[in-house]
C-alpha cells in the first residue's frame, strides 16, 4: 500500500514557523521517547527514532531548512530549481511513494527518491556495490549514529575572558536509569523509559580571549544519542556587564576622569587596566572625549592583543572653595577663549 510522505515539521510536531529553540526542544523530547535503549526490540520505535533524527538534521541547519522549505523532498538535488510562486512540494509525488523495494530503515523521503535502487541496511549506509546517483554516500549512517549536540549559555566576567580561568557550572541532562535500565514500567525513577534526569557540576576551562558570543565545546557532556553515546555540550559565552570597561571587538574602552587643571596643563595620571593600574602621560590641552591609546592592553586574540582606549572626561569640583571661585572669575576676565565660535 502506498505510504504518504511525512513532512519533517510534522515528524517533529512543530509549526513551519517554529524557532530553532522550539525545533531543538521537540527533537530532544521525541528522541528520548523513541530512543532504541528505551524501546528494545521495537522496530517501529527504531524507525521513528531515525525519522526524528533525520528531520532534526535538516530543520536545525538554517541553510538546509531554507532549501527544504523551498523545495520539499527534492531539496538535496534540486538546488538549481526555482519553484513558481504557487509551488507546493507536497504535490511533487502526489503525496505517495513507489511501492516495493527501497532502503530498510530509511524514511519515506529517501524511499521515494531511491525506489528500487537497492535494499537493506547496507545500501542505506552507502555500502559497497551501490550506485548513489544523488551523492548520498554514507548519509544513512550519519543519521543513525550522529550524537545530539546540546547547547547552553555561560556568563563570565571580563577578567575570566582576559586571563582565562576554570569555573564550575551546573547542568541538568538525561541519564540511564540505574535502578531498572528501562526494564520496569513500574520503576519509580524512570517509569520504564530508561532515562532519568541528573544534575551534574562540571569544571569548565575558559580560554583566555574567548569572545562574547563565542562557544566552548565540552566533548561528551551533551545529551545521550544513539547507541547510548553522549554528544557534546556547546556553551555560548556571554560577558557580564563590567563597571569599568566596555568591549569593542578586541579593544577595551575605559573612562579617564581628570581635573580641569590636569586637562589644561597635562599630568601623569593613573589608568586602570585588566593587568592592574599603570601611569600614563596626559597631554596638555586634553578636552573631554579625547582618546589615549594604550597598545596591547586590550583582549587577547590569535595575533596578539587588542588595545585599551582611555577616554578623557573633564570633571569639575562639586563644591569649589571661595578662593577657587575667585580664581575662576579672574581667569574669565583675562581669557579671550570662546568655546562657541
How would you explain this protein's 3D organization?
It contains 10 helices and 13 strands. By secondary structure, the chain is of the alpha+beta class. The protein folds into 3 domains: 8-145, DnaJ domain (Helix Hairpins), CATH 1.10.287.110; 150-239, HSP40/DNAj peptide-binding domain (Sandwich), CATH 2.60.260.20; 245-334, Urease metallochaperone UreE, N-terminal domain (HSP40/DNAj peptide-binding domain, Sandwich). It has a 4-stranded mixed sheet with strand order 6-7-13-10. The chain has a 3-stranded mixed sheet with strand order 1-5-4. It starts with 7 loop residues before the first helix and ends in a 7-residue tail after the last helix. Mean pLDDT is 78; it is low at 78-145.
Mind sketching the topology for me?
Blueprint: H1 8-12, H2 20-34, H3 43-59, H4 62-71, H5 108-114, H6 120-124, H7 139-145, E1 150-156, H8 158-163, E2 165-176, E3 195-206, E4 215-218, E5 233-239, E6 245-248, E7 251-258, H9 260-265, E8 267-273, E9 276-282, E10 291-294, E11 300-301, E12 304-305, E13 308-314, H10 322-334
Parallel strand pairs: 1-5, 7-13
Antiparallel strand pairs: 2-3, 4-5, 6-7, 8-9, 10-13, 11-12
Helix pairs in contact: 2-3
Strand coverage percent: 15-25%
Q: Element order, helices and strands?
A: HHHHHHHEHEEEEEEHEEEEEEH
CATH topology of the largest domain: Helix Hairpins
| CATH H-level homologous superfamily name of the largest domain | DnaJ domain
Number of domains: 3
Distance between the termini: 89 Å
User: What general form does the structure show?
Assistant: elongated
Radius of gyration: 31 Å
| CATH class value of the largest domain | Mainly Alpha
What characterizes the major β-sheet?
4 strands, mixed
Question: Which class do the helix and strand fractions yield?
Answer: alpha+beta
Sequence stretches where pLDDT stays below 50 over 5 or more residues: 78-145
Percentage of helical residues? Answer: 25-40%
Query: What's the tally of helices?
Result: 10
Count the E strands: 13
Overall pLDDT level? 78
Return the CATH architecture of the largest domain: Orthogonal Bundle
Order of strands across the main sheet: 6-7-13-10
Amino acid at each position: 500500500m502506498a505510504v504518504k510522505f511525512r513532512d519533517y515539521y510534522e515528524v517533529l510536531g512543530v509549526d513551519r514557523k517554529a524557532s530553532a529553540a522550539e525545533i531543538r526542544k521537540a527533537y530532544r523530547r521525541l528522541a528520548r521517547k523513541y530512543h532504541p535503549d528505551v524501546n528494545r526490540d521495537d522496530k517501529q520505535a527504531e524507525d521513528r527514532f531515525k525519522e526524528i533524527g533525520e528531520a532534526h538534521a535538516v530543520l536545525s541547519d538554517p541553510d538546509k531548512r531554507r532549501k527544504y522549505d523551498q523545495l520539499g523532498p527534492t531539496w538535496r538535488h534540486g538546488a538549481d530549481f526555482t519553484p513558481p510562486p504557487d509551488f507546493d512540494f507536497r504535490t511533487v509525488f502526489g503525496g505517495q511513494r513507489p511501492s516495493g523495494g527501497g532502503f530498510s530503515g530509511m524514511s519515506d523521503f529517501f524511499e521515494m527518491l531511491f525506489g528500487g535502487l537497492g535494499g537493506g541496511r547496507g545500501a542505506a549506509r552507502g555500502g559497497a556495490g551501490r550506485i548513489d546517483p544523488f551523492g548520498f554516500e554514507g548519509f544513512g549512517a550519519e543519521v543513525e549514529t550522529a550524537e545530539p549536540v546540546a547547547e547552553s549559555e555561560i556568563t563570565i566576567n571580563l577578567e575570566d575572558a582576559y586571563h582565562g580561568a576554570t569555573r564550575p557550572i551546573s547542568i541538568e541532562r538525561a541519564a540511564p536509569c540505574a535502578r531498572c535500565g528501562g526494564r520496569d514500567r513500574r520503576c519509580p525513577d524512570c517509569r520504564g523509559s530508561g532515562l532519568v534526569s541528573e544534575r551534574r557540576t562540571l569544571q569548565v576551562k575558559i580560554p583566555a580571549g574567548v569572545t562574547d558570543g563565542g562557544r566552548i565545546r565540552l566533548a561528551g557532556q551533551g545529551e545521550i544519542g544513539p547507541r547510548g553515546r553522549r554528544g557534546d555540550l556547546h556553551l555560548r559565552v556571554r560577558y557580564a556587564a563590567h563597571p569599568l570597561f566596555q568591549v569593542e571587538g578586541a579593544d577595551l574602552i575605559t573612562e579617564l576622569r581628570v581635573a580641569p587643571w590636569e586637562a589644561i596643563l597635562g599630568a601623569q595620571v593613573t589608568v586602570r587596566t585588566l593587568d592592574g593600574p599603570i601611569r600614563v602621560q596626559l597631554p596638555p590641552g586634553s578636552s573631554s572625549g579625547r582618546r589615549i591609546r594604550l597598545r596591547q592592553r586590550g583582549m587577547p586574540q590569535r595575533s596578539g592583543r587588542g588595545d585599551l582606549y582611555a577616554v578623557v572626561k573633564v570633571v569639575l569640583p562639586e563644591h569649589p572653595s571661595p578662593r577657587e571661585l575667585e580664581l575662576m572669575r579672574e581667569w574669565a576676565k583675562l581669557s579671550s577663549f570662546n568655546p562657541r565660535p
